[in-house]
Structures are given as structure tokens and as C-alpha cells.
Design brief:
Strands 1-2 form a two-stranded parallel ribbon. Helix content is about 55%, strand content about 5%. The chain contains five helices and two strands. The chain starts with a helix and ends in a 9-residue tail after the last helix. The chain has one domain: Glycogen Phosphorylase B (Rossmann fold).
Length: about 100
């Protein structure tokens, strides 16, 4: 999250929160991607992904710059998270039966 905020395109292993946070690059989603992900837990997977990122940087500068802008536009603030939780609780409450006060 910090790397995106400060205009650095992340290269991450697709696990846990990183998998949820980073939208991996493909030429078809350059308008919404935020970084590069790899899945395998091998040094070669990281090396290949770094080479892929370098290739995009050199050969598709428009796509790379779009990733920088997309990453910087992400909102990871607590306010955003709190609003999501509030909506979740509001939806959950709708499914509960009405509360009848005790007499």
C-alpha cells in the first residue's frame, strides 16, 4: 500500500492481503491494474516477474504510467474501510427480524 501511495509499482507474491490489494497487470486491464503478482514460491518466479515488470516499463510506458496513477489513486484509509464495514453491518441488520420490546 505504501509503495502505491508513493508511485512505486509493487511486485508481490499473490498471498493474503497482497493478493487482495494488488490488481495484476495484463495488457487488457492496463486501465485498472496496480502492479505485478506471481504465485509460485520459487526464486525464479520472482525473477521472471521482475523481468516482466521491466519489460512493461521499457516497452509499454503508457501502461506502466497508468499503473503508477492507478496505485496512487487507491484509498486505503480507515475512513474508507469504516464506510465499507458500516454498509456491511447495515445489510446484515436488514436480514434480521424486527426487535419487539419486552413488556
Amino acid at each position: 500500500m505504501y509503495s502505491m501511495r508513493y508511485s512505486t509499482v509493487p511486485v508481490v507474491r499473490a498471498t493474503g492481503g497482497l493478493d487482495d490489494t494488488v490488481v495484476s497487470y495484463t495488457p487488457l486491464n492496463a486501465d485498472c491494474c496496480t502492479g505485478f503478482k506471481f504465485h509460485d514460491l520459487y526464486p525464479e518466479a520472482l525473477l521472471n516477474t521482475l523481468r516482466w515488470a521491466e519489460s512493461v516499463y521499457k516497452n509499454q510506458p503508457g501502461d506502466f504510467n497508468a499503473m503508477v496513477r492507478n496505485g496512487m489513486a487507491q484509498d486505503f484509509s480507515w475512513r474508507h474501510t469504516a464506510l465499507e464495514y458500516e454498509a456491511l453491518y447495515r445489510d446484515a441488520r436488514k436480514s434480521l427480524p424486527p426487535v419487539v420490546p419486552a413488556k
